[in-house]
Amino acid sequence: MERTELIQAAINASGNAYAPYSGFRVGAALRLENGKIISGCNVENAAFPSGVCAERNAIAAASSAMPGVSPVAIAIAASGSEGLTGEPVPPCGNCRQVIAEEEYRNGKEIEIILYGKNKTIVIRGVDNLLPLKFNTKNLNPGSP
After folding, report:
1. Rounded distance, CA 118 to CA 91, Å?
2. CA–CA separation, 27 and 3 (whole Å)
3. Number of folded domains in the chain?
4. Is position 144 within any domain?
5. Which of 68, 76, 77 minimizes the C-alpha distance to 32?
6. What is the DSSP letter of 48?
7. Which of 110, 85, 88 shows the shortest CA–CA distance to 97?
């Protein structure tokens, strides 16, 4: 039930996306350890690098609204011109890195739920999406 609710929140958030250039609307919904759900959507910009992904918007919104409350799961759903995608859409590299930082910051894995009409993929922890991530160990190579 919790996953279904989170997926529906991600689908709803995708409807709020601003995607006039790609037509690809993405929604993300983050469940926090206190049970609250914070959503985000992608927001495109004519200066393409200035756009922001749904996952990063949701994480930033949660960090601003509820600092110190750890995320436990994130659901991602996307739609194009023909509605929801059949196959799940994984987070981009930037979003994977941001999810990795959230896991590091909070010391907890985040369940990643990728939704598509044809199937749903559940991944436990960003290490399974980004095994060679950049983290603080890279900043301090001499530290344990």
Report:
1. 18
2. 15
3. 1
4. no
5. 68
6. G
7. 110
Please report whether residue 59 resides in a domain. Answer: yes
pLDDT tens digit string along 105-133?
999 999 999 999 999 999 999 999 888 87
For residue 46 the two structure tokens come to 């004519």
What's the pLDDT score for residue 140?
75
Tokens of 74: 């994130």
- Measured CA to CA, the distance from residue 22 to residue 84 in angstroms comes to 15
Instruction: Give backbone dihedrals phi and psi of 4, rounded to 5 degrees, phi first.
Output: -60, -45
Which residues span the domain enclosing 64? 2-139
Give the CATH number for residue 95: 3.40.140.10
Q: Which helix (H) or strand (E) covers residue 29, if one does?
A: strand 25-32
Q: Is 45 within a domain? A: yes
In a domain, 75, yes or no: yes
pLDDT one-digit tens code per residue, 66-86: 999 999 999 999 999 999 999
Query: CA–CA distance from 134 to each of 22, 54, 74, 142 (Å)?
Result: 29, 21, 21, 15
* pLDDT for residue 131: 83
Q: Which sequence positions are flagged as catalytic?
A: 55
